[in-house]
Amino acid sequence: MPRHIISKKAHRLNEDKDPSPSRKKERRPNPVLRLLAFLLTAVMVLGAVFLIVNYDKLNFDSIKRWFAYRDLEREDGGQAQSFPFDGDGTSTFASLDGDLLVCSTTGVRLYSASGQVYVDRTVTMEHPVAVAAGSTALAYDAGGQTLLVCRDRAEAFSLELGQDEEVLSADVNEKGWMVTVTQQSGYKGVVTVYDDQFRPQMQVSLSSRFIMDAALAPDNSAVAVLAMGLTDGTFTSQVELYPTAGTADDASPQTTAPVGSQVILEMTWDDGGIWALGEDEIYHLDASAALTGSYSYAGRYLKGFSLGGDGTAALLLGKYRAGSAAELVVVDGQGEAQATLALDEQVLSISAAGRYISLLTADRLNIYDHQDLSVYHSLEGTQSARKALQRTDGSVLLIGNDTARVYLPQ
């Protein structure tokens, strides 16, 4: 037999004996396992669609509160044990990562929810102001020379101005960037932007217009400056937008938006845009300082307000300056009244954060959903609380004359 035929037969014989798995017959998947995998995938897809469609209706804040305050002792009604704080009648407060910042004429102090003191700085302030965002809080003396920053339960930065300088206002955004408005010789206002390490990034110095306030963009890309000056012989307020990249000393703003001839009481910048609250009207502008809407309450008294809501502003309006009759109005970014609620009790404090608005009266705390002002939770018996600080997780800091405590809705 020829050699090449013998070689081919031997090769076929070796192929028949090849134990390689690729030569074996493949097994078909178990139909039961395939069905279970299909059902599991379908459930996960349907669950994801349900969460997307109903996200605004669901509330996971109770779970957040459980993790955040699981070690905090509380009563059956959801109130934690009260703790004393050092302050006086001029004290201002800010909520910082579950802690309480107290800024008074005698100093700045940071307390945990159980009353532990983390920061205790003695400093004299004539007009103490406290503000907070994210994990950073500011305490400063409006019209004075002192500013302190708290972060990570410690004093992170301090600013002491010269005798010929004054801090007019200061603010911080969620990313820890800070902006100050100061009065300096030769200028009607100076705006300084600091990064999250408190290094100066840019400055706006104006000599032709008074600077009343400033607010930083959530992404740190720009700063909104509230200026007031003469236009055709009349004082007008306007929001001026400056980029934070590079200096802008006496430069022209990128954009200017008039916000009436009234005094603007407060300006803030959230994820939805810029709020400018005046005596008779509130304005909302987008990130480019274009007006998106305004809401007028001329003829009514602005008895209280809070601009900490998620894309909304909460206004407490009354026909008369005195008396308990009032109306709670939630304004959206288009200047429309999203929800209203008539009130017949004297409101001691109003505070908004995230999706919640809290109203404190002499004997009750009501927490509302900002979408429709439906009651989320109520607490009867507030133990002489005079001020409420709403938090985004639904919890509330109740503050009295010299004690404070956390209320956790259950």
Question: What is the number of beta strands?
Answer: 32
Give me the Rg, rounded.
30 Å
CATH topology of the domain at 305-410: Lipocalin
Helix fraction, binned, reads 10-25%
* Biggest sheet character: 4 strands, antiparallel
CATH class of the domain at 305-410: Mainly Beta
Proportion of beta-strand residues: over 45%
Architecture overview:
With 410 residues, this protein is mainly β. The protein has a domain at 305-410: Lipocalin, CATH 2.40.128. It contains 3 helices and 32 strands. It has helices spanning 3-16, 31-53, 61-68, and strands spanning 83-84, 92-96, 99-103, 107-111, 117-122, 128-133, 136-141, 146-151, 154-160, 166-172, 178-183, 189-194, 200-206, 210-216, 222-231, 234-243, 255-258, 264-270, 273-278, 281-285, 291-296, 301-306, 313-318, 326-331, 337-343, 349-353, 356-360, 364-369, 375-380, 387-390, 396-399, 403-407. Strands 1-32-31-30 form a 4-stranded antiparallel sheet, with no helix packed on it. Strands 2-3-4-5 form a 4-stranded antiparallel sheet, with no helix packed on it. It starts with a helix and ends with a strand.
